[in-house]
Design the sequence.
């Protein structure tokens, strides 16, 4: 995976009467091809959700536009502004014309095609091949249907798509396995990106049931466009045994009939279902909603649902957006055994049943409904395990498949939410501050560094936050110039942790943050004056700092502040040399040929040690410091980078010399430390290897990691707290947040170099 850096061109776009929207001059454009709302189609909804989330991820410098496929030339949809072209799917010439226009447009950088055999016209949708044969720019194709035994002609069509696509996306591991087995030429091109889900707050069913007037009911639901492969009749047949045990049960069937089904057989299937309901005397227990629901209405029904039923009887169905949305809303699921369900429905979030088996439905529904507490736990687990599937994360993974690079826009929403008038809270429960744990000097110092660096790179008003974090440091300073680290939320006083923990690192980070403020000419002079006052009061205490990482942070702080505090220049340089000599001594004592490090283990925030020596060597013109720093950084790189990704030292146990390294718990502080060190090394040495490695390391946050799951949450602007062996830690605490923001700002300094 990579991130996208747009390369803009200055040529204007030729006028085109087929464009029904305005292009912004010089904006790079990604074109989304497929069906699109208001056309009623699952692919259309997917396409829109992906586009909206991609536009949010890519920000204002990239334009996302749509080429919408119409069923025929007679369709007269009123499309939203992002639809720039309307194509008759049965007209080959319109496919070719679209390709030519995109080739000629210098701003179009690539297309994302949502592929389904029935939406491009011709036998097995072969008209899309006319587009692909003509179009000459990068192509990403999402294959929504992957069959293990395709017809000869379908295989021919798919083979040509695979040959032309730069990257292929499937939505399940099962689909990837089938695709690479049936089409070996696809190997190396296939990426698994799950169906996205919308952000929604987790709730119980109580409020939604009250709003929908189902307060006294158990609610089962199924939604989606009706067609015969839905298999809803088998659920209806199961209901009498469920109602006998749970008489308040209502089954809601949500959604209109699929437009293509309506064209061929009208409402025959819906009428058959209604007749079955009447035959089984279930009119009081089954309710049809024959309409295409808005997203808002859909989530209202899902939040009222006790168990969602995914009913497909198509064994070749790869994925169901309705199943994804139900789990993402935090609802337990009973599903038939199609590919996606087997991968994402676990015992903790629901159950699987065989296709076309009413008895199995009734047994499992009765079992789940008999234990309300267990059902509530399933709701919570369904919600938590699906957070990596948020559309914003899905959009990031799609964007990464283009060959160019792009940085996510700065999003301070979570930083603001985690901060009150006193300071930045230490921990979060999911994306909400967990206030009972209070605040730390560590986190507020790093947040102050973020604000200082943002002051010159963003138009966002961050003065208020800068004031809060600087004054927090002031409140942590004691009368003798030292600092405390932990402050209680309720009483705004020091906690007992300050007496029981070593807080040298916190003190050194505070010095670094103060140095950032003092050395920033763009900040208000009152802020820099206050920072200098705090710094000078702390300076005598800094001589007592002796721990390795605290010494390294002190070197970094003193080196940065040297030109701005001339009256202490001699004293600061002396301390830089003393602490650098300490690091070099520790390196010499512990290093052997196979282990070139400052200690006999690697632990947390490792890269600050070599970074500080590289800085010291640059400031003092000492080759000894520089050589030791470069050697140690090279060793750390060998231990933490594979050929394709960054692998942080796991925090579950330190990596001891001659022992196996711990792979988890991977935490954002570690890649942030490495990125800052690599950026420093690149700036000082101009060795582009460091630049390239820093980009690989940053992609750890975006999903290029051991679990291939993003840590950065584009929706909130927060960062998840780490990678466990089997999951992402979904809490978004302060350390993770500021680690991401520091990394993001550091990378932005060098990507154009």
Sequence:
């Amino acid at each position: 995976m990579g991130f996208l850096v747009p390369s803009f061109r200055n040529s204007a776009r030729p006028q085109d009467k087929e464009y029904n929207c305005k292009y912004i001059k010089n904006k790079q454009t990604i074109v989304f091809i497929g069906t699109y709302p208001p056309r009623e189609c699952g692919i259309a909804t997917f396409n829109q959700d992906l586009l909206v989330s991609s536009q949010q991820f890519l920000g204002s410098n990239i334009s996302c536009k749509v080429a919408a496929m119409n069923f025929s030339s007679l369709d007269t949809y009123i499309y939203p502004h992002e639809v720039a072209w309307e194509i008759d799917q049965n007209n080959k010439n319109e496919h070719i014309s679209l390709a030519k226009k995109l080739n000629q447009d210098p701003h179009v950088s690539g297309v994302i095609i949502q592929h389904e055999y029935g939406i491009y016209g011709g036998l097995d949708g072969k008209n899309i091949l006319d587009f692909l044969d003509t179009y000459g720019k990068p192509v990403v194709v999402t294959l929504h249907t992957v069959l293990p035994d395709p017809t000869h002609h379908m295989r021919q069509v798919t083979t040509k798509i695979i040959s032309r696509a730069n990257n292929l996306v499937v939505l399940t591991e099962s689909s990837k396995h089938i695709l690479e087995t049936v089409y070996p030429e696809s190997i190396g091109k296939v990426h698994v990106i799950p169906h996205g889900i919308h952000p929604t707050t987790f709730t119980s069913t109580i409020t939604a049931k009250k709003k929908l007037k189902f307060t006294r009911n158990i609610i089962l639901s199924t939604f989606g466009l009706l067609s015969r492969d839905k298999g809803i009749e088998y659920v209806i047949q199961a209901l009498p045994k469920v109602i006998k045990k749970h008489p308040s049960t209502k089954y809601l069937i949500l959604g209109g009939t699929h437009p293509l089904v309506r064209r061929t057989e009208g409402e025959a299937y819906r009428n058959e279902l209604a007749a079955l309901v009447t035959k089984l005397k279930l009119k009081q227990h089954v309710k049809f909603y024959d309409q295409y629901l808005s997203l808002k209405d859909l989530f209202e029904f899902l939040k009222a649902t006790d168990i969602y039923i995914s009913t497909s009887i198509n064994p070749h169905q790869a994925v169901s957006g309705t199943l994804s949305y139900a789990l993402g809303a935090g609802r337990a699921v009973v599903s038939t055994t199609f590919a996606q369900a087997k991968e994402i429905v676990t015992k903790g979030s629901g159950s699987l049943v065989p296709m076309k088996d009413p008895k199995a439905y009734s047994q499992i529904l009765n079992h789940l409904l008999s234990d309300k507490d267990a059902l509530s736990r399933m709701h919570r687990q369904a919600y938590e395990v699906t957070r990596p599937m948020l559309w914003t994360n899905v959009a990031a993974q799609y964007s990464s498949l283009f060959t160019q690079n792009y940085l996510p826009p700065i999003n301070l929403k979570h930083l603001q939410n985690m901060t009150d008038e006193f300071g930045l809270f230490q921990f979060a429960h999911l994306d909400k501050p967990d206030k009972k744990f209070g605040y730390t000097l560590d986190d507020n110092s790093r947040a102050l560094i973020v604000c200082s660096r943002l002051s010159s790179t963003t138009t966002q008003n961050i003065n208020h936050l800068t004031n809060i974090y600087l004054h927090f440091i002031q409140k942590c300073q004691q009368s003798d110039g030292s600092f405390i680290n932990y402050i209680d939320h309720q009483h705004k006083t020091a906690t007992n942790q300050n007496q029981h923990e070593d807080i040298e690192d916190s003190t050194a980070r505070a010095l670094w943050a103060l140095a950032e403020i003092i050395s920033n000419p763009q900040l208000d002079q009152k802020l820099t004056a206050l920072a200098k006052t705090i710094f000078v009061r702390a300076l005598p205490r800094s001589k007592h700092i002796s721990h390795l990482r605290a010494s390294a942070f002190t070197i970094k702080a003193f080196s940065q502040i040297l030109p701005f505090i001339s009256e202490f220049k001699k004293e600061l340089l002396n301390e830089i040399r003393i602490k650098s000599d300490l690091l070099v001594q520790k390196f010499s004592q512990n290093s052997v040929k196979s282990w070139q490090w400052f200690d006999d283990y690697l632990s947390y925030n490792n890269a600050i040690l070599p970074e500080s020596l590289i800085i010291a060597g640059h400031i003092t013109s000492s080759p000894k410091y520089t050589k030791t720093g470069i050697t140690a950084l090279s060793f750390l790189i060998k231990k933490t980078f594979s050929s394709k990704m960054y692998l942080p030292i796991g925090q579950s146990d330190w990596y001891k010399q001659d022992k196996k390294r711990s792979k988890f718990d991977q935490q954002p502080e570690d890649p942030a430390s490495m990125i800052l060190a690599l950026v420093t090394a690149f700036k000082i040495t101009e060795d582009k290897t460091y630049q390239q490695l820093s980009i690989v390391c940053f992609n750890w946050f975006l999903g290029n990691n051991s679990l291939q799951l993003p840590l950065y949450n584009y929706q909130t602007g927060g960062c998840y707290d780490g990678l466990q062996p089997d999951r992402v830690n979904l809490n978004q605490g302060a350390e993770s947040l500021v680690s991401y923001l520091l990394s993001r700002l550091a990378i932005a300094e060098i990507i154009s170099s």
